Amino acid sequence: MEVIVVKDKFAGGKKAAEIFKREHDSGAKVFGLATGGTPETTYAELTKSDLDFSDDVSINLDEYVGLGANDEQSYHYYMQKHLFDEKPFKKSYLPDGTDLDAAKETAHYSEIIAQNPIDLQLLGIGENGHIGFNEPGSAFDSKTSKIHLTDSTIKANARYFDKPEDVPQYAYSMGIGEIMNAKHILLEAFGKNKAEAIKAMIEGPMTEDVPASVLQNHPQVTVIVDEEAATLLAK
Ligand SMILES: O=P(O)(O)OC[C@H]1O[C@](O)(CO)[C@@H](O)[C@@H]1O
After folding, report:
1. Which of 20, 42, 93, 203 is the Cys-Cys partner for 16 at CB 3.0 to 4.6 Å?
2. ipTM of this model?
3. Is Transmembrane helix set as a keyword in this record (predicted)?
């Protein structure tokens, strides 16, 4: 695991965009994408760059169950606004939050992931160590599933909604086993509220209680953290 400490999220976004460019130049064709506050500076850099994804495929990690693409809180809407409007891909996949048949939608999404092996997977990390929406206790070999969000995640994501009660309770998320199949994983974390999760991910035991700790077992992981998220790491 390579850990790169940067000054702040803006320097982190620049570093991550450099890694996207390097992978793209080396022939990467399938990009796994994330949402949330963390990747916003990365998408801002990619948007300004000369990278052209029009021959590539993107596969997002997750979507809230019940939200459609026109809903401003949906991850479809987020991706359109932060990246795809400026940098369209040949094909972009996200789970369909409006399909309430969970067995059908999750099997379909797993099939898409199996058919499009991910070259570079961008990840954030939850304050409780989740990756994608795979909450503590998720199996390390899990496939796409419908996840019941924890109170901690609902609280953390409530900032995007008018009231905490509006945050959906469920999401469809790519599974940990599917994330681990990506060739190269790039995880970003910015801010002091991520410091404990980052310490547990890098220095703690590998345990399903901290989903991100599974990355200790992946052959190519790059972690970009700002100084605040790195504060608890051993020097
Ligand atoms: O970047 P944020 O907003 O802190 O969220 C952390 C993680 O939790 C999620 O919101 C849930 O998947 C991710 O999109 C993100 O990587």
Report:
1. 42
2. 0.92
3. no
pLDDT in tens, 98-156: 999 999 999 999 999 999 999 999 999 999 999 999 999 999 999 999 999 999 999 99
The DSSP call for residue 100 is -
Where do runs of H (alpha helix) occur along 6-121? 9-25, 40-48, 75-79, 102-115
Q: Which CATH architecture has domain 2-213?
A: 3-Layer(aba) Sandwich (3.40)
E strand residue ranges, the chain: 2-6, 30-33, 57-60, 62-64, 91-93, 120-123, 145-148, 170-173, 184-189, 221-226
Give residue 208 CA to ligand 1 midpoint distance, Å: 18
Distance of alpha carbon 64 from alpha carbon 67, whole angstroms:
6
| Cα 133 to middle of ligand 1, angstroms | 8
Report the C-alpha gap between 131 and 50 in whole angstroms. Answer: 29
All structural domains of the chain with their residue ranges: 2-213
Q: Which residues pair with 148 in a beta bridge?
A: 170
**Is residue 82 annotated as part of the catalytic site, yes or no?**
no
**Helical spans, DSSP H, in the chain:** 9-25, 40-48, 75-79, 102-115, 151-157, 176-180, 195-203
Query: Which of 125, 149, 215, 224 is the best mutation target for the ligand 1 pocket, counting ligand atoms within 8 Å of the beta carbon and taking the most?
Result: 125
